[in-house]
Amino acid sequence: MSGDGYADVEQANTAFYEALERGDFEALSALWLDDEISCIHPGWPVLSGRGEVLRSYALIMANTEYIQFFLTDVKITEAADTAVLTCTENILSGGPADAGGELGPLMGQLVVATNVFRRTSEGWRLWSHHGSPVLTESDDEGETEEETPA
Amino acid sequence: MSGDGYADVEQANTAFYEALERGDFEALSALWLDDEISCIHPGWPVLSGRGEVLRSYALIMANTEYIQFFLTDVKITEAADTAVLTCTENILSGGPADAGGELGPLMGQLVVATNVFRRTSEGWRLWSHHGSPVLTESDDEGETEEETPA
């Protein structure tokens, strides 16, 4: 574990979200490993391999007019050229409007993510991304004990 | 990457879910790394460190009378003593009944998980677990385009 490594990992993570914000598919693709990768978007099943994963981002970018990530609680642990980063994604997004070219209604969302990076000769690259919605207690009616384990 | 490694990783993963099924807190604790770990249960925020993570499992075990995991779509990739495993958890669970000692109503649930393991001298240990609900299209009313990226 090294301080340098942590800064590099956080930089790769920031680049990932900035590519999403810009809708920059090329930059996003370059940030993923070339071999076996996996990705789980909030509420989605598992996507495996570059084909499935990158197609999902192309689809999401096509359906997203505006998106901004405010990352909080970024925590990084690192060992043997691998890093596990967890963070909270405070998302503000807007889809295309139904009619006309105006921006659709903005929506706020709270997502937590586990991003796994591997160090390569070209820098840190994404091996796995898993995002899931935070169903906060205030949204439920005393159903917090019903949460499912694992 | 080795075939042996893959079998060992799957074995550690199976042991993790079996410990949960048995409500075996000691076995579950032993399967996690000693240092910085993270865990995200479906709908929960991030839990970091052994204290937070193991406390959550103690809480879940106390509130779960019965739980069974049918794992499908297990996929493993491995590099540099680290393995990323994704799987679908088909969960059947029941909480304690409100009154009397009988089993509460059984509930089925579909969860996808990303489990990150690290090889140690005592075998593969969990570094990170992230589970999230699968919100299938059939449960929504044509809202699949609203899915949030990342």
Largest interface: A-B, 60 and 59 residues
Percentage of β-strand residues of chain A: 35-45%
Number of helices of chain A: 3
Helix content of chain A: 25-40%
Biased composition (Acidic residues) (chains A, B): 137-150
Protein name (chains A, B): 3-dehydroquinate dehydratase
Pfam families (chains A, B): SnoaL_3
Region (Disordered) (chains A, B): 130-150
Describe this structure in words.
Chains A, B: InterPro entries: NTF2-like_dom_sf, SnoaL-like. Chains A, B: It comes from Streptomyces clavuligerus. Chains A, B: Pfam families: SnoaL_3. Chains A, B: This is 3-dehydroquinate dehydratase. The structure is a homodimer. With about 150 residues, chain A is α+β, with helices and mostly antiparallel strands. Chain A has one domain: Nuclear Transport Factor 2, Chain: A, CATH 3.10.450.50. Helices cover about 25% and strands about 40% of the residues of chain A. Chain A has a six-stranded mixed beta sheet with strand order 2-1-6-5-4-3. In chain A, a hairpin with a 6-residue loop joins strand 1 (about 40) and strand 2 (about 45-50). The two termini of chain A are about 30 Å apart. Mean pLDDT of chain A is about 85; it is low at about 140-150. Chains A and B meet through helix 1, helix 3, strand 3, strand 4 and strand 5 of A and helix 1, helix 3, strand 3, strand 4 and strand 5 of B.
